[in-house]
């Protein structure tokens, strides 16, 4: 799942913990990690005396497929990976005489997204036609909202994790210029062998979000998009999967010296993951800086990101000096949304109208609020709150475990973000597919907390539970005789055997090298398969070596 | 029987004096006899007989059951070719029925065929379609032949347009009613020139779903019938909200038959002075005065009013029309449906040659100028300005109706129908500007308007007058129209058997 790789890498940077357990996973994650010295240098601007360096300026245009059962302007269904052209109404095929009918669910999704991004919701918005000839645009125009979009002037707050351990959280803002509703174009599949193009018109409705050029590098853009993904997923307005085309991100990239006017920008397209977004932007910034430093000029053009080479390459420019000849869409009256039920004019059915107040009340907990709450309520580290929120269902899992155990949240978090998440990732499973349920994990942790098993045994039990779902921690402990050995006589005899067989070590300890005691302790644990009560063992060994 | 209003025929059907199949056969026969008019692009003989048969076996369910009707060939008809009189769509068969067509079929009306038009409804003569011009039935009837001494086959008059086929179908008694479309006068203009009642309802009252658009913001399905009451009954059936057309509005009231004894005493009739325009024929002016006098004598208040922005209307109409045409025609690219050029060295080349081959000069010309008006650098100067003037024109009407005027009485056209050979001396653009001058302001303002035939000219051709009313006052408008109809004594074409007249001339 590409989405995960992205999720776990760019923002969380928790690979250190995971790698301890799963070397295989760590190498995947290390590969996709974006380390970006350029970005860091921009965050802490150089002193004024040094000549100003060229820095990147990044704005984003994001097309989000609206998660609704039917299309934006027709009643036909929307389903990912449906056979090509199986969900195409007469309107979708642009048959002559057909007319668009706006889907209320899509409007509500856009309003909800606008509210979550602190936008002003336009009480009245308008639809326009944008004209161009392209095979996957059967009407010869796209219905969009050019003049007056449904939502404007919002902010997205996202966080970067900085510092050596990625434990320093830096909050940043990007201004949302507008959110507009628009028809999706079809999908072209070019068959170069037979030199033909196949068109799939199974398209959904889109929200286009325009983010102002408030970002300066790939990492920031990636973090902003990742945060947007989480928000959209929390709202349920878009599934947000970039590899499936539900979220399509085009980056507008330019470079300049801070304080000077913005440079000539390029538009980078064909980016299908957050990780590629970061790479494409950083490549493009470097490319432009290189051109300027060589005395050249940057061309205003559209470029495509080639994920194989990691480069951006000029696209055959279908747009060029295109004039889209915008005009009002005459078949759709202005879209009116109402503030609350009281402002509904007489004769308008409240169920048919889009009412902002109602949508506001239905807003779910947003990721940033959720993270703050987790940190405050459970005393966990901010970076852990990112890990929890980034993985669908993990917060709920974590909280369910806490409900069933007296173990401190700060001790539980490691189990969830390391053991559980690590196992899930290795097998490419989602949280809901975990073979160990929250109560089962809680029971395991409870056994450890109450001194029935040692912490190293607990990890063994976890692995066994993972492999044999349905068996409880207590059952496994019993079956494999993993309970803590605290029989003093038995431990005395084992310790004696170890002391007797290691005279050199005993000698060292007696000469004052107390650290060697740990080695003996390890040998005792080895003898007992990790089940010996460590406090007791230490005490006995100390007695025998004194 | 064929010369009756459909209400009369409906009664005959119910009383069993004629069966739906017999009636259908009579009309099909008539269509064959009047083939020279070129009123139909497609005659749906087989399905018409089947529908008539179905109508016969069920109990007749309403006034339209078993009644033959024609549909302008820019309304989509399921499994029946819909060509828009263009090469582009000459083999196009839609998979669905336009809402208005479906509503008539649901009433048991029998579809006789698809009526001829100007290509994509762009014209005012019905002379610019890919399937040839439509001939005015009145130009084969005795009065015209006798008055003008027309002897030659080429001495025929145009029907007006663009719904000329629909008008000719109703006037030549091959259908009792017909659907036209009205964007700038395309229903009322041929209605007036062919001597039939032609209603353009309030914008939004009838669904445009399935009407292949000319100008979405002005298009209205039009109703053509032999009497005002017939038109009213059809309006009652077709009007109302359609979920497939977001610009439709609920019907203000159910509309059945009109009151037979409408009193005009409390009616205020406005005579807009700007409609006394250059080029208005003496005879049409005389009819205008005659009917105004009728009102006055009946106790109605008749007063001169002013619609000061009228003179700018036609220019703005053309800017807005061409802009929407440029947009609406963009879908005809040869990829999914319609004509596709053999020249396909690249997608762009195929687009260009498909569109060049598929559209006539008129359509291509409008696309070109429309795209020019929509260019970023021109948009404010042309499109936005035209929209502002459109608002002023709508305000003119609002002010007049706000001052107590109930209906406006105007000519529908400048004169009676021109002879084809004279009409085609000028290009489509010039003719459209002349012919739509009295009709398109109602489209700009979205108002209901109806053309009522009042008399035959000295040449033996019909003259019509137009009534314009406030939005959604269609019923009152029709009541006034019927009042005129009852008093002007317009003759029926069935008084002369024009088809025999014609054969006499040929031999």
From TrEMBL, chain A:
The keyword tRNA processing does not apply. It is an enzyme of class 6 (ligase). GO terms for cellular component: glutamyl-tRNA(Gln) amidotransferase complex; mitochondrion. Its EC number is 6.3.5.-. One of its GO terms (molecular function) is glutaminyl-tRNA synthase (glutamine-hydrolyzing) activity. Subunit of the heterotrimeric GatCAB amidotransferase (AdT) complex, composed of A (QRSL1), B (GATB) and C (GATC) subunits. Allows the formation of correctly charged Gln-tRNA(Gln) through the transamidation of misacylated Glu-tRNA(Gln) in the mitochondria. The reaction takes place in the presence of glutamine and ATP through an activated gamma-phospho-Glu-tRNA(Gln). Belongs to the GatB/GatE family. GatB subfamily. PANTHER family: GLUTAMYL-TRNA GLN AMIDOTRANSFERASE SUBUNIT B MITOCHONDRIAL AND PROKARYOTIC PET112-RELATED, GLUTAMYL-TRNA(GLN) AMIDOTRANSFERASE SUBUNIT B, MITOCHONDRIAL. This is Glutamyl-tRNA(Gln) amidotransferase subunit B, mitochondrial. It comes from Amphiprion ocellaris (Clown anemonefish). The gene is GATB.
Automatic annotation (TrEMBL), chain B:
The keyword rRNA-binding does not apply. Residues 1-16 form the signal peptide. Its main location: mitochondrion. Gene3D superfamilies: Amidase signature (AS) domain. Transmembrane segments: none annotated. The keyword Nucleotide-binding applies. Residues 22-478 form the Amidase domain. It is found in: Mitochondrion. InterPro entries: Amidase, Amidase_dom, AS_sf, GatA. The active site is at 72 (charge relay system), 162 (charge relay system), 186 (acyl-ester intermediate). It is an enzyme of class 6 (ligase). Pfam families: Amidase. GO terms for biological process: glutaminyl-tRNAGln biosynthesis via transamidation; mitochondrial translation. GO terms for molecular function: ATP binding; glutaminyl-tRNA synthase (glutamine-hydrolyzing) activity. It catalyses: L-glutamyl-tRNA(Gln) + L-glutamine + ATP + H2O = L-glutaminyl-tRNA(Gln) + L-glutamate + ADP + phosphate + H(+). Keywords: ATP-binding, Ligase, Mitochondrion, Nucleotide-binding, Protein biosynthesis, Signal. GO terms for cellular component: glutamyl-tRNA(Gln) amidotransferase complex; mitochondrion. It comes from the Eukaryota. Its EC number is 6.3.5.7. Subunit of the heterotrimeric GatCAB amidotransferase (AdT) complex, composed of A (QRSL1), B (GATB) and C (GATC) subunits. Belongs to the amidase family. GatA subfamily. PANTHER family: GLUTAMYL-TRNA(GLN) AMIDOTRANSFERASE SUBUNIT A, MITOCHONDRIAL (PTHR11895:SF7), TRANSAMIDASE (PTHR11895). Allows the formation of correctly charged Gln-tRNA(Gln) through the transamidation of misacylated Glu-tRNA(Gln) in the mitochondria. The reaction takes place in the presence of glutamine and ATP through an activated gamma-phospho-Glu-tRNA(Gln). This is Glutamyl-tRNA(Gln) amidotransferase subunit A, mitochondrial. It comes from Amphiprion ocellaris. The gene is QRSL1.
């Amino acid at each position: 799942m590409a989405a995960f790789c992205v999720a776990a890498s760019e923002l969380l940077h928790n690979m250190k913990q995971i790698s301890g357990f799963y070397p295989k996973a760590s190498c995947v994650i290390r590969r996709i990690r974006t380390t970006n010295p350029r970005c860091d240098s921009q965050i802490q601007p150089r002193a004024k005396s040094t000549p100003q360096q060229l820095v990147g300026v990044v704005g984003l245009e994001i097309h989000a497929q609206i998660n609704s059962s039917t299309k934006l302007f027709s009643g036909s269904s929307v389903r990912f990976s449906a056979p090509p052209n199986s969900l195409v109404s007469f309107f979708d095929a642009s048959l002559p005489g057909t007319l668009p009918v706006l889907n209320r669910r899509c409007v509500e999704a856009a309003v909800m997204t606008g509210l979550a991004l602190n936008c002003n919701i336009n009480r009245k918005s308008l639809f326009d036609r944008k004209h161009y000839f392209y095979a996957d645009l059967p009407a010869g125009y796209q219905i969009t909202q050019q003049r007056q979009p449904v939502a404007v002037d919002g902010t997205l707050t996202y966080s970067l994790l900085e510092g050596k351990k990625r434990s320093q959280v830096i909050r940043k803002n990007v201004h949302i210029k507008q959110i507009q509703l628009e028809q999706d174009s079809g999908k072209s599949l070019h068959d170069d062998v037979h030199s033909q193009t196949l068109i799939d018109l199974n398209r959904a409705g889109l929200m286009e979000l325009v983010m102002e050029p408030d970002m300066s590098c790939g990492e920031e853009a990636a973090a902003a998009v990742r945060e947007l993904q989480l928000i959209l997923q929390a709202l349920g307005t878009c599934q947000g999967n970039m590899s499936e085309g539900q979220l399509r991100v085009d980056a507008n990239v330019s470079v300049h010296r801070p304080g000077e006017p913005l440079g000539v920008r390029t538009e980078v397209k064909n980016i299908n993951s957050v990780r590629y977004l970061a790479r494409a932007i950083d490549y493009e910034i470097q490319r432009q800086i290189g051109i300027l430093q060589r005395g050249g000029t940057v061309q205003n053009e559209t470029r495509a990101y080639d994920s194989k080479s990691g480069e951006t390459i000029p696209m055959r420019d279908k747009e060029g000096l295109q004039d889209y000849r915008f005009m009002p869409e005459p078949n759709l009256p202005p879209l009116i949304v109402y503030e609350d039920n009281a402002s509904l004019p007489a004769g308008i059915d409240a169920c048919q109208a889009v009412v902002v107040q109602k949508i506001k009340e239905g807003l779910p907990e947003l990721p940033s609020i959720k993270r703050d709450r987790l940190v405050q309520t459970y005393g966990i580290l901010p970076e852990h709150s990112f890990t929890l929120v980034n993985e669908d269902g993990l917060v709920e899992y974590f909280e369910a475990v806490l409900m069933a155990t007296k173990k401190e949240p700060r001790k539980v978090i490691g189990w969830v973000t390391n053991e559980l998440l690590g196992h899930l990732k290795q097998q490419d499973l989602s949280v809901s597919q975990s073979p160990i349920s929250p109560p089962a994990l809680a029971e395991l942790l409870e056994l450890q907390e109450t001194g029935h098993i040692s912490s190293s045994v607990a990890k063994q039990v976890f692995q066994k539970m993972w492999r044999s779902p349905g068996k409880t921690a207590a059952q496994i402990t019993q079956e494999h005789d993993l309970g803590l050995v605290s029989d003093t006589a038995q431990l005395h005899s084992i310790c004696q055997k170890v002391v007797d067989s290691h005279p050199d070590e005993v000698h060292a300890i007696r000469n004052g090298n107390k650290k060697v005691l740990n080695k003996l302790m390890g040998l005792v644990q080895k003898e007992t398969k990790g089940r010996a009560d460590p406090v007791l063992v230490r005490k006995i060994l100390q007695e025998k070596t004194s | 029987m064929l010369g009756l209003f459909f209400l009369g025929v409906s009664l005959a059907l119910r009383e069993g004096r004629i069966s739906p199949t017999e009636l259908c056969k009579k009309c099909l026969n008539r269509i064959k006899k009047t083939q020279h008019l070129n009123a139909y692009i497609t005659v749906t003989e087989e399905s018409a007989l089947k529908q008539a048969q179905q109508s016969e076996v069920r109990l007749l369910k309403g006034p339209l059951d078993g009644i033959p009707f024609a549909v302008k060939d820019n309304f989509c008809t399921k499994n029946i070719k819909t060509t828009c009189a263009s090469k582009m769509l000459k083999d196009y068969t839609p998979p669905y029925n336009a809402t208005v067509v479906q509503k008539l079929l649901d009433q048991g009306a029998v579809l006789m065929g698809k009526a001829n038009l100007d290509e994509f409804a762009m014209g005012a003569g019905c002379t610019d379609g890919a399937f040839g011009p439509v001939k005015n039935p009145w130009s084969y009837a005795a009065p015209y032949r006798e008055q003008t001494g027309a002897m030659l086959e080429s001495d025929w008059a145009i029907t007006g347009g663009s719904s000329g086929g629909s008008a000719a179908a109703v006037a030549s008694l091959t259908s009792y009613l017909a659907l036209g479309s009205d964007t700038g006068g395309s229903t009322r203009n041929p209605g007036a020139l062919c001597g039939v009642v032609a209603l353009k309802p309030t914008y939004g009252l009838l669904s445009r779903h399935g009407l292949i658009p000319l100008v979405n913001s002005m298009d209205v399905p039009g109703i053509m019938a032999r009497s005002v009451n017939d038109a009213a009954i059809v309006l009652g059936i077709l009007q109302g909200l359609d979920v497939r057309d977001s610009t439709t509005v609920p019907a203000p009231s159910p509309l059945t038959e009109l009151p037979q004894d409408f009193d005009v005493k409390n009616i205020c009739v406005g005579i807009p002075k700007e409609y006394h325009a250059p080029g208005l024929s003496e005879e049409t002016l005389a009819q205008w005065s005659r009917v105004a006098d009728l009102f006055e004598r009946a106790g109605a208040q008749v007063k001169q009013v002013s619609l000061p922005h009228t003179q700018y209307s036609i220019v703005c109409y053309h800017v807005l029309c061409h802009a929407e045409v440029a947009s609406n025609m963009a879908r005809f690219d040869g990829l999914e449906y319609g004509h596709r050029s053999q020249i396909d060295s690249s997608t762009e080349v195929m687009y260009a040659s498909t569109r060049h081959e598929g559209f006539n000069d008129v359509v291509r010309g409008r696309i070109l100028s429309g795209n020019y008006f929509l260019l970023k650098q021109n948009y404010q100067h042309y499109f936005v300005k035209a929209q502002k003037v459109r608002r002023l024109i709508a305000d003119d009407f609002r002010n007049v109706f706000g001052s107590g005027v109930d209906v406006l009485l105007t000519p529908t056209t400048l004169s009676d129908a021109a002879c084809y050979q004279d009409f085609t001396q000028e290009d489509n653009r010039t003719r459209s500007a002349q012919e739509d001058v009295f009709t398109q302001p109602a489209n700009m303002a979205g108002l209901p308007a109806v053309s009522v035939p009042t008399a035959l000219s000295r040449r033996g051709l019909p003259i019509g007058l137009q009534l314009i009313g406030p939005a959604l006052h269609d019923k009152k408008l029709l009541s006034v129209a019927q009042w005129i109809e009852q008093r002007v004594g317009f003759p029926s074409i069935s008084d002369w058997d024009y088809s025999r007249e014609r054969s006499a001339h040929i031999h």
